[in-house]
């Protein structure tokens, strides 16, 4: 009964209900404008735009995962791109196995890049990825296992603060260098690409793109609710206490490293799920997703949107990536300068991000309404 109550607690929050309602309404609107409005109409949402929105939603789920550990635990992870990429590679391996003999070289088992590199057999770690259930399970287990091992060693050794951030960054950089090697069996520099279908559906069809967009939205909603359930539970309160005063929390008898490890693993699995949803929508996964710069960019999304709010991470991810789409098309050389300037402006004038600005306005409105009601009552 207790476990059910903490899972249902987010449904009693007004902010959570508003977020879920806005997300579902946006998904329904995009679907309606894509299916009901004929192409060529000014309100029609094309398959390309649907695909772009789906990528934004997968990024939003990744930002929520980062905000879970940064906002509630105070762990600034600069390596969540590694968990995102591992989930993406697990999905990419499944999609590559679905190509079969329709590849360039026509081999029924080996992917094209293995045939090109003269591999004579499929590596053992590729076995099972021809089955959707196994592949989808590995989307969660691969990043979860890495987070479990890394987190156990780091939290048990009480590595915190900037040292932990540097280690997470070193982790993703090491994985990037490893995946660049052709000997690893993951496509080297080119990665995995030329996907054809998922669960029997053509990835190039507009119906499949719409389905992936809806799946990304549902995953974001479920991931957000799970994170809110964790944050508002007793576990979440211990995490906040650990963030604000770890030594005092240990003194009270809590095994802090266990709480840190659990939340870190959950966050990594959500990041892996985001990567798995991202790959079939963009059509490629390569070692650049392990880049430390990408992990730093994720942190910027959360900081711009508003740390410790979860919905702020969603806002930040969507706003920054939309701006990136616009700026890279209009001024590709100026995008990084625009992102840096935006981060500086928000840090100076909006230290709590966009979400902090929204909450401030709501608080002022409530105070004004309360003051007006008090004046009416006294009159």
From TrEMBL:
It holds the Pfam family BPD_transp_2. It is found in: Cell inner membrane. It comes from the Bacteria. It is a multi-pass membrane protein. The chain crosses the membrane at residues 16-36, 56-89, 132-155, 162-180, 210-227, 259-278, 298-322, 334-354. Keywords: Cell membrane, Membrane, Transmembrane, Transmembrane helix. Its main location: membrane. The keyword Transmembrane helix applies. NCBIfam families: urea_trans_UrtC (TIGR03408). PANTHER family: HIGH-AFFINITY BRANCHED-CHAIN AMINO ACID TRANSPORT SYSTEM PERMEASE (PTHR30482), SLR1201 PROTEIN (PTHR30482:SF4). This is Urea ABC transporter permease subunit UrtC. It comes from Halomonas sulfidivorans.
